Every structure is written in structure tokens, then in C-alpha cells.
Amino acid sequence: MAIELKNLTKRSENYSQWYNELVVKADLAEQSAVRGCMVIKPYGYAIWEKMQRQLDDMFKATGHVNAYFPLLIPKSFLSREADHVEGFAKECAVVTHYRLKNDPNGNGVVVDPEARLEEELIIRPTSETIIWNTYKNWIKSYRDLPILCNQWANVFRWEMRTRMFLRTAEFLWQEGHTAHATSEEAIEEAKKMLGVYADFAEKYMAVPVIKGVKSANERFAGAIETFTIEAMMQDGKALQSGTSHFLGQNFAKAFDVKFINKNNELEYVWATSWGVSTRLMGALIMTHSDDNGLVLPPHLAPIQVVIVPIYKTADQLKVIDDKVAPVVDALRAMGVSVKYDNADNKRPGFKFADYELKGVPVRLALGARDIENGTIEVMRRDTLEKQTVEFAGIENYVKNLLEEIQTNIFNKALKHRESMTTTVETYDEFKEQIEKGGFILAHWDGTPETEEKIKEETKATIRCIPLDGDKTPGRCMVTGRPSAQRVVFARNY
Amino acid sequence: MAIELKNLTKRSENYSQWYNELVVKADLAEQSAVRGCMVIKPYGYAIWEKMQRQLDDMFKATGHVNAYFPLLIPKSFLSREADHVEGFAKECAVVTHYRLKNDPNGNGVVVDPEARLEEELIIRPTSETIIWNTYKNWIKSYRDLPILCNQWANVFRWEMRTRMFLRTAEFLWQEGHTAHATSEEAIEEAKKMLGVYADFAEKYMAVPVIKGVKSANERFAGAIETFTIEAMMQDGKALQSGTSHFLGQNFAKAFDVKFINKNNELEYVWATSWGVSTRLMGALIMTHSDDNGLVLPPHLAPIQVVIVPIYKTADQLKVIDDKVAPVVDALRAMGVSVKYDNADNKRPGFKFADYELKGVPVRLALGARDIENGTIEVMRRDTLEKQTVEFAGIENYVKNLLEEIQTNIFNKALKHRESMTTTVETYDEFKEQIEKGGFILAHWDGTPETEEKIKEETKATIRCIPLDGDKTPGRCMVTGRPSAQRVVFARNY
Fold first, then answer.
1. How many CA atoms lie within 13 A of B325 on its CB side?
2. A202 FRET partner, CA 20 to 30 A, in A103, A170, A311, A367?
């Protein structure tokens, strides 16, 4: 019983190992035969599907449509935007041939040297280049703008150190690519989508995030401005959870995309791009889970409620089955996803541990004594508290409890973040504090040099210059030069 | 007004050109900068999304779950199954390097020769190999079976001659991969999923299909048996629209996937795989559309109803706006997707032609005279018939009309197929008939040689050995040898 569970490393012992084990034990994902690429298992994928569906609805509600652009990008496209090629050329998968042939020596198949491509193709690390090459044909006049496209796709970056969900060579994501007639409209779009990401993170993932702007060092390759949402994991490290870029006219210039504006002048188009990926799964897991396994927010849990019968005889089970059936129907009618696990080949204790490991938010258990007493046992995964409540009206009780859990885990994460956020005045204080982890709010002189020095000496980076909150100016903790506002530092994933 | 539309080639003039033009003019897809790869535009993708959603619901209703497996497959995996490598090695995209670097001569970026992979990776043409390599770790005992996984993914086959949706190098699809304890169960699964495909084609796409078994020549590389659904296009050519394979133990043997069966014996696992792709978009377009543009089945149309106001003054428009608003609400409440197009920058005639081109099933038009008379004009896209009906109760009228159109276009396609299906006794008759197109039911001796001869001499292939219908034995039209039943021949896409 629950043998696997017993082997889960505790967070306090080794947080990193706890995470790696949990991903595998909770059946979310596993390493594949291809270096750096994971298999997303059905339970993990079911969570991702719920994320996708919700995000997709939110994108459509803000006027976006989906489309699909090619997986492969001609090598020369990457070079068109100077910063972009620097950022992405170093870690890409290159297709050089289009055919295999039988090995003349009889050892399986080999690359056919005659099938070499004239120009190599790159598996998309991101799609700005191929998309702007396409938009060129879609845009003639301001009447064709804005274009508000999103794509759900796989992308590939040849990362050297990979961790499941957090950093994998292939990952799944969505990438929005929009085209606008004015700079103001594009900036507004980039900020709007950052807001969508923040809403999604907080309301669905129950992960509190700080919205901010990236420093030049941390900007997307090819962007004028990168907006970001930053979350705090339980070990005090930051996780960048979504970014939205104002690209200015950089890609329009690189791909020669002009339009006739309202004044009848030819002008380059303004762009944004924005994306979140399966990395969000990592944020979700690391924010809420505990030493017993996953803790899932009810709004994204594939199974929100599990019901386990406790019985000795087939007759007892029959009675419980009959009692449970209308509850299952009523919960489903309320839009709650519920599983009645009356499988005979596993004991209740094993089931309990398994659903705990998998993070099912609410577990109901019903035995002979409950039937007699008109009660049912309720266990909530977030606090692991058990309670015996009246059977009558259990549907509404559960429905309310799910919302309570959603709120509770968000508040818990927020409290944790607040307890891990400090304000420092001096670089000495900073160096002491950074060893304890967490977000540090400090003044910075705005130069890449100072940022680089801090990174080298402390491994901390500027996570963002926050959009909201205190904007009091001060003096850089390192150089003493003027600082417009405190920025957020942390070590990060 | 409707300038683009006027340029659409007529089907009778050049069916193939009509198709190519329609795909572009109706904003479904366009060629990309990468040979053989298309961009699926938002309107085309919206149709594909509706297909996906419906298929996904049907897969889940039959007990399947989604997962995600890597895009790249180690080259050696392909060689493990002898037939499979023959079928797929010849047309694959090969990744040989993992990095680019700046060209020492200053010409952009070049492949870094030092970043050569030890073993080349193939972009998946289909995923049996990587999935069965994964299943090896998931399956120990009959208790782990069945595994019923599906994946929505992009795949890549280096096709020499491509046509949008029908045959592209990269395409989108779903691939189901199931693992079973017995041969019987696997065959049942393969047939069940063929049934799901046939239901989807007929009830949602309104495309009648023949269910059957492929001859050995046309079988999937690595399958024991391939089941297929075959549709008839308006030009009398067949389109294979979905396949479901019984793979026997071939992939289990290739990847050494064994399980302990109920008799406590070690046995190889039984497999199926099944897939449909963006090719279905081609079937949808070619089955129903006409010289005015797309005709979409209401069950898959992104916009089912469009309402166009006919007005001269802003006051008139205001009156129409107010009249239409509750109709829009009522239709949406009934689950009908409706667009009220009161955009001021296009004339009604242009809008009419555009929505005709895009295949919107029902168009409503409302003018000042209609308001006076309490009427509204209804145009149905399938027959292009216009009718003036009472405004009161228009919601129910439209709802019923959508179902009527769905049924009508299916029946029209079925009638067309029946009119294009002939039964022949002799090979001479066959050769004459095949020039006229359509399905030909004829006796065949069951040998690959005879099939090959017919293909060479007439360009016709055996589309399938039908599962349903007449099973009377006879004599092969070519060799006179015994034939168990008539099979379906056609020229095909």
C-alpha cells in the first residue's frame, strides 16, 4: 500500500529531487529516449489540456483567432533580425537532409548524402520570422490591421541542462503574434496579454505573480520591451511564467512589412508576441505541492472529486453504489468532474494514497457506518483535514469546498511569497539575504554592467521592474547612482 | 464587388485548379516559404478546430486519453520494424546538427560542423516507434492493459508532389496508439475507431464513406490489416479519409514489449494505431463546394448564420440593429454561431458574395421593407435558394434549416457517389468505365500481381475490400480466378 508514495523525497531534504520524483510518481511526465525531450503522460496532459482550454477561451474573448504556421524555418530567416539570430541560432535543431537509405554495409539506414537540402531548415525555436514573412502578404493597408493571431505549437531549443516541464528541448506552447498600425496600440496589446496571463495564473493556477518589465539583459531577442509575470516557488526561487513582447518595427523591417496608414503614407507595421508554455506545469507543481504529492487547484484538476467506497461485502458495496450514483450525477450536472472509484482490485488505503499523490482536491469516503448515520467523510487535499459531514446536501458542500480550496491555496502561496519578499538598502544586506532565497526589492542604477556584476557575484538576476506598487526613487545599492524605483531580484529557474 | 469570386475557375473547366484557387480565395490556407508546407489561415484553422473538438469528444467518449510524445525519433528506431522503415525512411526530414554559428565569411549563419549529432534524429512521420519504445516501460502485466492513448500532433513526410490539405510535407493529425492483451481485442479496437471515423465523416462532415479493408499493397507499413474509410469527390476520384491499423505484435516485437498474461505467461502485446489528418479538410472542401465557393456542413461551419442589414441611412440601420439584437441572442442561446455583419465599409452585395465564397450555411438579410412587412430574407448556401419568411420565429426556422442543410448536403453527396458507382464484369468494361471516374465494383483474385497490373494499365487502385454490402463470390475480371467478393476500385488522390 502506497509504496511509491513512501519513497517521495521530502522538500526539506532536497527540493529539486522532490520535484523530479513527483513529476514521475504522479504520472505527469517521464524522460524519453531523445535527450532533453519528455513524454507528457495522460494525467499530466489532462492538466495541460485544461490550461489550454481556459487560455484559449481567454484569448478568443480578447478577439484573437488561431492559425498554424510551418514547423521548419529556412536558416536565412533567422539571420534577418540581428538580435534574434544571436538569441536563437546557438541552440537549434538543424534539418540538413530529406531522405534516409539502406546502409550499404547492412546496418539499418543511413542519411542519403545525395538528399542534402540546398538551404538548411531549423525547427522553430519561436515563430516570429516565419510569421512575419507570411504577414508581409496579408498586410497592405491600415484596414488589414490589427492582425490578432495565436498558434498552439511545439517548439524546439537545444538546451544543455533540461528538467521536465521547466526546461526541455521540445516543449508545447502558444505564441501570439499580432500586427498593429501604431506603436501605442501594440504596447497596449502586449500589456493586455500580460494581464490575461496574470489573471490566468492567479485565478486558475492559484499562483500569485508579479507583473513587470524585463531589464535589457533579460529581454527577448528582438524585442524593444519584454513584459513578464514572475512567480515564487516554495524554495524561494523565482520562475518566469509568461512573457509578452513589444517588438516595435524590428520584425516588420527585417521582413519588409509595410502598410499604407490613414494619412496615406507607407509605414512599417508594429508588432507584439506573447507566449506561455508547458513550463506553467512546473510552476503549478512547485507552488502548491507537498511531501505527500501533488496539490492541484480545483479549477485545473482533471478529477476534482473522488469518491471511494469502504466495504467488506458485495452487498455493502451495492448499497454504497446506489447511494453514490445520484451524488455523482448531481455533481456532474453542476459541472464538477467526479470519479467514483469502486474498483475491486485495490484497497481503500492504496486509493487514498494514490489520489493524494495525484492531488485530487476533494476525496469523499463512504462506509457502512456512514450509511447508518447519514454521514460521509470529506478529506480536502490542501490541508489534509478530514471531516465527517451530513450526507444530505453533500453536492453543495463539495461545490463550496472546491472554491474554498482554490482560494486557500492561492492565499497560502501569496502569504509564502510575502514572507519570502524583503526590501534591502545595501549590497551587503542583499548578499546576505539572497542566500535565504526569495524576492529582494532593491534599488538599481539601470545599467547592464551593474546587473551583470550582481549576477556574477550572487547568481541573482533582475526578475522584473514591477509595473505596480512602490515607485519611490532611491540610490543603487551597488553604485549609489540614482534609481527610479526598486526592482525585483531573485535567483531563478 | 466580389471581384475575387469572379475569378474562381469553374469545376467543369478544371477541377484541380478550382480546388487550389478555392483554398486560397476562401482564406483557408496558403503556401509558405518552406517547400510543401502550408500556412493554415484563421478561417481554415477554425474549421479544423471544430473537427478536432468533435473528434476529441468522440475519442474520450470511447475511453481514450490524450498524451504527448517527442517530435524527434532516433534514426535507429525506424529500422526496428522491417516494413515500417521501408515505408517511411524514404521521405523523412533528418536533423543532423544542433547548432548554427556565425559564418566566418560574414554571410549570416552556417551549420556548426562541431555540433554534429552522434545519431541523427528524424522528424516523426508517424509515432509507432517512439511510442512503443515508451510503452515498454508502462506495461508489465495484463492489469496495465489496455492502454488507450491518442496524440494531437504535427508530422512530417518529405512528399515530392504536394497539394494544400491533401498532401503536404508537414500536416496536423491525431494518432491513436493502443496496446491490448489479445489479438481479438486489438482488432475490435481498430474496427471501433474506424466506426468513429465513419460516424464523424457522415454526421459532421456530411461526407458518405465506404468502410473497408486495404489490400496488402495499400496497407500501412508495419500493419497486419489496415481498415479505411473512402470518400468520393465530385470529380469521381476517391479520397482515403482515415485509416485504422491492426498492428498485431509487430511493434511489440520490434521494441520488446511483453506482458504477463492471465495464465502467468510472458507474451508480446497487441497493438493498433489510427489517424485522421488535415487531409479531412480537403475531403470537406471537395465534396460539397461549388462554383460560387465553399459549401460547409452546418455542424462544422465556424459561422453558421450571418445576418446582413440592408439600409441607406444611419436611422434605418439603428432600427435594424435593434430588431436583430434579440435574434442574435436567441440563436446563440440555442448554440448557433451567428455573426451580425453591420460593418459600414462594405456593401451588402460584397458581403453576400464573400459569405457565399466562405460557405456560411445560412444568410439572413433584413431591410426597411422587411421591417414594414414583418419579414426577413433567408438564403441557404447549399441550394442558393432565397426565400422571404416571417420575422417572428426566425430563430426556430433557422435552427431547423441548419439541420435540413446538413441532411441535404449529405444526401446530395451520397446520391453523387451512387451515380458514380458502377459494377463491371469484364476488364474491358472496367477500362472503359475507369475513364469516366467513380467507384467501380469488380471481382479481383486477391493477388498483388493482378492489382499491380490493373494499377499500371489503368491508374486505378483498390480503394478497399468493403466490410458491408454484397459478399457474393465470383471470378476475377482479369485472371478469371475465384474472387470472394467484389472490391472497390478507383483513381484516387
1. 5
2. A170
